[in-house]
Amino acid sequence: MDFDYIIVGAGSAGCVLAERLTANGRHKVLMLEAGGSDRRFFVHMPLGYGKTFYDKSCNWMYVAEPDPGLNGQRDYVPRGKILGGSSSINAMVYIRGQAADYDDWRREGNIGWGWDDVLPVFRQMEDYPAGDPAYRGRGGPVHLSDMGPDAHLLCQPFIKAAMAAGLKYTPDFNGAEQEGVGLYQLTTKGGRRLSAARAFLRPAMRRRNLKVETGAHVTRVLFEDKRAVGVEYLQRGQRLTVKTRGEVILSGGAINSPQLLQLSGVGPGALLQEMEIPVLRENASVGARMEDHHGINYTWRMTVPTLNDALRPWWGKLRVGAHYVLRQRGPLSLSVNQGGGFFRTSPDLERPNMQLYMQAFSTLIPRVGERPLLNPDPFSGLSLGLSNCRPSSRGEVMIKSPDPFVHPKISFNVYGTEKDVAEMLAAVKFLRVIAAQEPLKSLMAEELRPGPECRSDDELIHDFRQRSGTVYHQSCTCRMGPDASHFVVDPRLQVHGVDRLRVCDASVFPNLIAGNTNAPSMMVGWKGAEIILRDAAG
After folding, report:
1. Per-residue pLDDT tens digits for 450-479
2. CA distances, 433 to each of 339, 387, 437 (Å)
3. pLDDT, tens digit, for every residue of 403-430?
4. CATH homologous superfamily for 44-74+138-189+291-470?
5. CATH 3.50.50.60 is held by the domain 3-41+196-290+475-537
6. Strands 266-267 and 281-282, how do they pair?
7. Which residues are catalytically annotated?
């Protein structure tokens, strides 16, 4: 079969691309995914992401470089290696970001990517009948669920305490305004995870013009002169090549897409020469200026039952497991992040710069090799967490070897600016302000982390450097913009300086959005397909 498009990576954006590019029946598409099938119980059970967190069969399990901002520690970086990519192993919170985020994209010169341009795309994608139709969509492939009656009883005390601390109640973070506190919406349907694979790829796989190959690790893009003509990949021990009469589209995400560009000779010239990779197109921006959200949890022992009490004992596991299997309801049908919101650390800021997470749950006692969502602490615990929405620190993703199976070097540079440190300091202080409000205060027995003895600014800063970690929103490593000297792709997602090669995933974000990145990644896939089809039509 001759292919019009080769898509590398079946993640959030790649799955959308595959569905949209094959919908009209005119184009033959090949999708190559390094991971395997998403048909796994712990993928489809929403809270099962605690099991996939350290599962190398569906997770790249990257480890970042020692980071001075984290007191020299190496952060763990899970990424989906499976149909659906990270949408198959994430916490399922659906956030579009703020309107101003996308207007920032347009101000970078990305015409067609402002809020007025992307809002219609979000509305076409979504199925959320409860929302304001001016902002929300109905009947789209991405069904969104509210927490509903299975939301933990501590959600309401949390919301009321946050309101007493000065936040307003916001019923829909994806509606007219994001700022405030409330309950999150999830990418679930019928009590099962609605990954990008389930929403987009599985329906598209019924079409004859889409071929999906799993276990296909792409090792480089093939070029004739400076025109992409295909890819080389390894599958079941065989090194294979496949050509396209159209385009190659990289959708590997913010780590894999810049890695593959560099392996193919597109990237920082000195680095490629050091690796003895012929330089096809020198571009210092490939893999540079990575943005990510980092966060921390504060934890309390509670005087009332939490999810710990439901999930820790064997009889609790049996009960919630039976409830889920029989009715697709209960704690296993939700995310551990149920309540949350967005706030400003200073009233002088134009828009929120921090995201809140409320978890009626705690995991202070770790288990080796497992994110213990299904084995929480042996006491009633609650965690209030936060992450920075628009950090000013920048990291990078750079190859360490010409061997495509060697993980790249991931450097976050967390809290690398005084601004980021000051904002996080103000934010963690606000967590204690929320905890001091009724009705939450009277339900708390004691603060466990960092503990009441951690009070001074220096102590609080040392604590969040010691305990912070990524919240898995890496982006911006193949940034989109019109200037070939500062960006990797143009506003049509074409790689500067080469032909018939595009990047379409979170790596092209010009700036990181405020919130979780799965929704905007799918939007980029949808809008990217529109652009590609328009270009094909001439």
Report:
1. 999 999 999 999 999 999 999 999 999 999
2. 17, 16, 7
3. 999 999 999 999 999 999 999 999 999 9
4. Glucose Oxidase, domain 3 (3.30.560.10)
5. yes
6. parallel
7. 473
